Amino acid sequence: MRVLVQRVKYASCTVDGNITGKCDKGYLLFVGFKDGDTKEELNKLLKKVVGLRIFEDEAGKMNKSLSDVNGSILAISQFTLYADCKHGNRPSFTTAMKYDLANNYFSEFVKLLKGSNIKVETGVFGADMKIELLNDGPVTIMLDSAEL
C-alpha cells in the first residue's frame, strides 16, 4: 500500500463538472494498493498518516500533526502509484490490486481515517477525476507500507 501525502492549503476533486470532495488546510492523499496487500497495511498507514507532524509550529519547525491544526483530508484512489516503468516508456500496472478489492480497501481506509476524528472527503473510485490543489510548502511525502 502506498499513500502519497501532500500538505495543502486546499484541494478539491471534480467529476463530470461536480465537486465530489474537498478539503481546506490539511492533506491531499493519493492512495494505492498492490496485489498481496493486507488489512494490516491499512492500520500501519493509518497510524503514520494520522501521526505525521508536517505542519509548522510557532518556531517554524515541522512539529504539528493534522489534528493539532484542525486539518482535513481529501482522499483519492490512485492505482497509478504502482506504475512499473522499468521496461519501455509505457507503464505497466500489473501489480496494482484488482478493481473490486482495491475499492473495498480504499473504502475501509477512509472509514478508518474518519474513525480517527478527522474530516475526510473523497473522490469517486475509478472515475475520471480532476484534482485541484494548492500545495503548501511544497511538502510531499511518499509512504509505502513495505518500508514502514
Please give the largest β-sheet: 6 strands, mixed
Look at the helices and sheets and give the structural class: alpha/beta
Beta-strand fraction estimate: 35-45%
Oligomer: single chain
Number of E-type strands: 8
Estimate the helix proportion, in percent: 10-25%
Compute the CA-based radius of gyration: 15 Å
Specify the CATH class.
Alpha Beta
H-E order:
EEEHEEEHEE
Q: Which regions are unreliable across 5 or more consecutive residues at pLDDT < 50?
A: none
CATH A-level architecture: 3-Layer(bba) Sandwich
Give the helix tally.
2
Overall spatial form: globular
Q: How many domains comprise the coordinates?
A: 1
From the N-terminal CA to the C-terminal CA, the straight-line distance is 11 Å
Average per-residue pLDDT, rounded, comes to 97
User: What is the name of the CATH superfamily?
Assistant: D-tyrosyl-tRNA(Tyr) deacylase
Blueprint of the fold:
Elements: E1 2-15, E2 18-23, E3 26-32, H1 39-51, E4 53-56, E5 62-65, E6 72-77, H2 99-114, E7 119-122, E8 130-144
Helix pairs in contact: 1-2
Task: Give your account of this protein's structure.
By secondary structure, the chain is α/β, with parallel strands linked by helices. It has a single domain (2-142), classed as 3-Layer(bba) Sandwich (D-tyrosyl-trna(Tyr) Deacylase, Chain: A), CATH 3.50.80. 20% of the residues lie in helices and 41% in strands. The chain has two helices and eight strands; from the N terminus they run E-E-E-H-E-E-E-H-E-E. The protein has helices spanning 39-51, 99-114; strands at residues 2-15, 18-23, 26-32, 53-56, 62-65, 72-77, 119-122, 130-144. Strands 1, 2, 3, 6, 7 and 8 form a six-stranded mixed beta sheet that branches. Strand 4 (53-56) and strand 5 form a beta hairpin. Helix 1 crosses helix 2. It is globular, with a radius of gyration of 15 Å. The model has no long low-confidence stretch (mean pLDDT 97).
